[in-house]
Amino acid sequence: MSHNHLILFNIMMMNANIFLCITLFLLIINPALSLPLCTNSKAPLTPKTPLLFCNYNGSSCCDSTDDSNIKKQFDSLNISQPACASLLKSILCSRCDPFSADLFTTRPVAPHVPVLCNSSVSNDNSFCEKVWDTCQNVSIKYSPFSSSNSSNKLSDIWPSGSEFCNVIGGPRVNDSVCFDGEKVSLTITTNSTKSVPTGMCLEKIANGSYLDMVTHTDGSNRAFFSNQKGQIWLATIPEFGSGRGLDLDESNPFLDLTDEVHFDTQFGLMSIALHPNFAQNGRFFASFNCDKTQTPSCAGRCACNSDVNCDPSKLGSDTPAQPCQYQSVVAEYSANVTSSSRASVITKASPVEVRRIFTMGLPFTSHHAGQILFGPDGYLYFMMGDGGAGDPYNFAQNKKSLLGKIMRFDVDNIPSESEVTSLGLWGNYSIPSDNPYTEDNDLLPEIWALGLQNPWRCSFDSERPSYFMCGDVGQNEYEEVNTITKNGNYGWRVYEGTTVYTPERTPGGNTSASSINPIFSVMGYKHSDVNKNEGSASITGGFFYRSITDPCLQGSYLFGDLYAHNMWAGVETPVNSGNFTTSGITFGCAKDSPVPCDLVPGSEIPALGYLFSFGQDNNKDVYLLTSSGVYRVVPPSRCGYTCAYETRTAGSGTPAPTSPSGSGANALKDSCTSLLLLLLLFIGLSF
Ligand SMILES: *[C@@H]1O[C@H](CO)[C@@H](O)[C@H](O)[C@H]1NC(C)=O
Ligand SMILES: *[C@@H]1O[C@H](CO)[C@@H](O)[C@H](O)[C@H]1NC(C)=O
Ligand SMILES: *[C@@H]1O[C@H](CO)[C@@H](O)[C@H](O)[C@H]1NC(C)=O
Ligand SMILES: *[C@@H]1O[C@H](CO)[C@@H](O)[C@H](O)[C@H]1NC(C)=O
Ligand SMILES: *[C@@H]1O[C@H](CO)[C@@H](O)[C@H](O)[C@H]1NC(C)=O
Ligand SMILES: *[C@@H]1O[C@H](CO)[C@@H](O)[C@H](O)[C@H]1NC(C)=O
Ligand SMILES: *[C@@H]1O[C@H](CO)[C@@H](O)[C@H](O)[C@H]1NC(C)=O
Ligand SMILES: *[C@@H]1O[C@H](CO)[C@@H](O)[C@H](O)[C@H]1NC(C)=O
Ligand SMILES: *[C@@H]1O[C@H](CO)[C@@H](O)[C@H](O)[C@H]1NC(C)=O
Ligand SMILES: *[C@@H]1O[C@H](CO)[C@@H](O)[C@H](O)[C@H]1NC(C)=O
Ligand SMILES: *[C@@H]1O[C@H](CO)[C@@H](O)[C@H](O)[C@H]1NC(C)=O
Ligand SMILES: *[C@@H]1O[C@H](CO)[C@@H](O)[C@H](O)[C@H]1NC(C)=O
Fold it and tell me: In b/e form, how buried is each residue of 464-478, taking b as 16+ CB within 10 angstroms?
């Protein structure tokens, strides 16, 4: 190939990449159904007082203020023709629909009108045509269909109904919703027999005990495993059916932080996260606890302080020897990627901390969750418990406290030292411009969601970015799985589950139930439902299962109890409704497991020990990290379970690309991700 041809070829490849990226991009902004979600990316709530104008009782994206604003807008349209007026009212009120985020798509023409159902269902008179037929000659002042105020009849803007519907209409198909004059309702499209997994088959691939697992961002079959003591390893995941275990060299960690980490029952290296561009920039993050009496660099501001009416010297029970002796830290490290040494081939990182992202002193010794996770928006989410002891200071509901919260940081724009100080930040990060404090000035700017007790293990659904699920540990009765949304209040410690909680000590006062609008959990279990041989119950949140390995688990949200005698699958009915049915699932160990499983005496159940976390690899295969080892979900037939959808090839799995440099497809995925994030930031969209 000549030099010129080569350039041409490269340009063609670039164009092909851009084309693929744009296709991917369109797929993402396509009004694909995602949870009941409002246009402001918040969850719909039931207003405290029923709406007077719009007919959206129950769950709604409007409160009374929105409702009266819509009434004013409607009145200003001054429509004389009653049939058309009634249609326009329903169109304006559709902003209150619990699915308004899906109804209102970003389109340049008529951004204030939902997608009107077009004739795509047989014999169904399309709502869009009905609007055209009824309203085409009617004068509408300040028409929401037009960006200009001058043309106020639909027929002034569009020559025909079909042209109107081509722009304003949209089909009602499997994966998108449209407005037909009524509250959006979903139909069950999945095969219900498919939604009952009979059992989950596991194979054991390692004996080691790990707390967190994150897959390599280069698309390869490698993942990082960290233990509670403070070590991180880079390991190669075996192919299905290879008979091999996890290739992890205990004596050769990727990074060893044991000197900095304070390790005790609820303390340690809690979580690790790779920057989305780790393969290019080598940036990664660790969340751990430290002891300020041991490590000088450890001390940060105490979470118990005068801002939140908490006096560290009067904390009371369950406090360590010194107030805020133990800290929660997020620190950045580097795999030292240079042009000659890409992260893909690097097997070690420097123990020198590049940057301190966050430090906060903890009031008590428990409930300081600690997971860090990059969202599909490229921001770093940080899960924080209420600090423990039954939250006597009511931190989880206190908008000036970071305890009992999910935080959201921008770690790509690091402010200067002086800005960090003047802004009163807890470390080196900046605040994403759409964090909820912009709408609720009482909130600390770091807060994304509140009212959590101890969010232990969260994940984003790899297929639907708006599904951000967290297991939230309960107190005495109920363990929760929550769907986390912007500024969502998950109720703790006003509620435990849906029951009003009675605190033992309340030196920090109470929040009244009438003053909050909590979002209740979508899945969960009662303590009385589980086998509590080894202690009380504590949830470990998992993943939406998206692998082809076990087709009967596909689309289910998997979670379990720390004490590991119970595992559940949540099936969403109907799909995309946010409404889940939870069933307990049995689990077994494959007879040909690479590392033989120990069984609970007198049973066929593998003795997992404590279920610390779930993990997911680049093929979306799911792992269980337990005190007895690492387990992977394998084809159900390997345990003798029947799954009608399992084929002979399924679960041999698509082997992940083994080349450490990643395949072309993965390189493409990486560049797409950057482009997508750029585009999303540019158009100000957030998931
Ligand atoms: C809510 O609206 C539905 C349908 O319009 C109606 O049947 C129901 O009675 C209403 N409920 C309340 C509490 O107003
Ligand atoms: C509303 O429309 C009527 C005619 O249908 C007109 O007489 C009246 O002035 C209009 N009101 C406003 C405020 O534009
Ligand atoms: C609207 O006006 C057009 C053209 O003048 C006419 O053909 C049509 O029947 C009218 N429609 C209604 C509903 O009045
Ligand atoms: C249309 O009218 C509204 C309300 O009076 C006004 O705020 C807006 O600027 C006008 N838009 C145009 C393009 O004239
Ligand atoms: C709406 O339906 C018409 C036929 O009734 C069709 O020609 C048009 O393509 C459809 N538009 C959309 C956006 O679905
Ligand atoms: C809708 O789902 C059905 C059955 O799953 C499928 O055959 C059809 O192609 C889907 N339609 C669209 C437009 O995706
Ligand atoms: C639903 O499941 C039944 C039983 O497994 C199967 O016979 C049928 O083909 C399935 N239907 C679809 C649409 O997948
Ligand atoms: C796992 O532990 C068992 C004993 O508990 C031992 O026999 C086996 O060799 C170990 N396997 C690996 C891969 O370390
Ligand atoms: C990173 O690697 C380069 C060369 O590969 C080396 O010169 C430099 O000292 C390394 N930096 C750190 C912090 O290890
Ligand atoms: C910001 O990072 C630097 C380098 O790690 C560190 O010295 C400094 O203390 C950090 N600032 C805060 C507020 O944590
Ligand atoms: C908080 O509420 C509990 C009952 O739930 C009550 O016993 C306690 O006195 C209240 N504390 C304060 C400070 O109001
Ligand atoms: C939620 O699912 C249950 C069954 O699993 C069903 O009875 C109920 O109607 C569903 N609720 C909604 C709002 O779809």
Answer: bebbbbbbbbbbeeb
